[in-house]
Design goal:
Blueprint lengths: L12 H4 L5 H20 L6 E5 L5 E3 H15 L4 E6 L6 E2 L5 E9 L10 E9 L4 E2 L2 E9 L3 E6 L5 E6 L2 E6 L9 E4 L8 H12 L3 E2 L5 H11 L1 E5 L12 H14 L3 E3 L9 E2 L8 E4 L1 H5 L4
Parallel strand pairs: 3-5, 12-13, 12-14
Antiparallel strand pairs: 1-2, 3-4, 5-6, 6-8, 7-16, 8-9, 9-10, 10-11, 14-17, 15-17
């Protein structure tokens, strides 16, 4: 069975997290609360901030505001030791011991002007954000026709929908089916021979191409229909595009909790070390058996 039936019964996010680690719960709830405000930022449009983030990418004003809001909400929580975001150069230390949070405040921002779905991604780690990583929770918020929050605190993956003033359980224990969607990032002309052969093999076996340019939206499709998303090592960019801390590791942990799998084409994403905050990594993520067989 792909996933359970609609068993929400009005259970809200706070009640769902009542048995989770209190520190983890406080972080998820804080991000959920800020996501309601982030959602309203889209009404103001997507003005160019004329600045660049830590990776040299052009920023939108709403990305900077979402980043500011999330940092402000998290840095005073007693459980938070450190915060890193895609928009900031380094790690923000609180001086306390506990959990660390890695954030992509607005994933898929290039899709905003065309009104496509974008998201917020968060990974929650025990201890440091550099060296061996110990993810304990992860979530994403998808700002689409519905605003949904998919999270795990280490006991399965669960989807909540924003209804009225809060998030209510929509589907419990999501499972990734062994499907045939393919969401390949990067230009085909830049593919390595091994990756090109993989994509062509998938196409020959009837995989359907669906790539939006919004990582969160593509992962949401994979959770529903199965298959895999990939942003590979490219000939001129052997580390790929996605960041280990802000995108790959949180989504890998979340999909593992839903029965999926993620690798860099050789090693499991969850086994990788973070050598630097903005480290990039090739990523293959989705249905367990499909991704487990990939070797590039």
């Amino acid at each position: 069975m792909r996933r359970s039936a609609n068993v929400g019964g009005g259970v809200n996010l706070a009640a769902h997290l009542a048995s989770a680690d209190p520190g983890v719960a406080s972080i998820i709830l804080a991000i959920a609360e800020e996501s309601k405000r982030i959602r309203t930022l889209f009404l103001a449009g997507a003005a160019d901030a004329r600045t660049r983030n830590a990776s040299g990418e052009a920023q939108l004003e709403l990305e900077k505001e979402a980043d500011r809001m999330l940092i402000a909400a998290l840095r005073t929580l007693p459980a938070v030791q450190a915060i890193a975001t895609e928009e900031q150069e380094g790690i923000i230390e609180t001086g306390r011991q506990g959990l660390s949070v890695a954030l992509d405040p607005v994933d898929g921002s290039s899709c905003i002007r065309t009104n496509l779905s974008v998201g917020t991604i968060a990974g929650i780690f025990s201890g440091s954000l550099v060296g061996p990583l110990q993810p304990v929770a992860a979530l994403y918020v998808l700002y689409g026709p519905l605003t949904t929050l998919v999270c795990t605190a280490g006991r399965g993956a669960h989807e909540f929908v924003l209804s009225g003033e809060g998030y209510v359980l929509r589907r419990a224990d999501i499972r990734v089916p062994e499907g045939k969607l393919l969401a390949p990032g990067g230009l085909r002309r830049d593919f390595t021979p091994a990756h090109r052969a993989l994509v062509e093999d998938c196409e020959s076996r009837g995989f359907k191409l669906r790539y939006t340019g919004s990582f969160t939206a593509d992962i949401s499709q994979i959770l529903e229909y199965g298959g895999f998303y990939c942003y590979p090592a490219l000939r001129q960019e052997p580390a790929g595009k996605l960041r280990l801390l802000f995108e790959a590791m949180p989504m890998a942990f979340l999909l593992q909790q839903a029965g999926g799998y993620a690798s860099d084409g050789r090693e499991p994403i969850l086994s990788l070390r973070a050598e630097q905050v903005h480290q990039r990594v090739p990523l293959y993520i989705g249905s367990h058996e499909v991704v487990k067989r990939i070797r590039v």
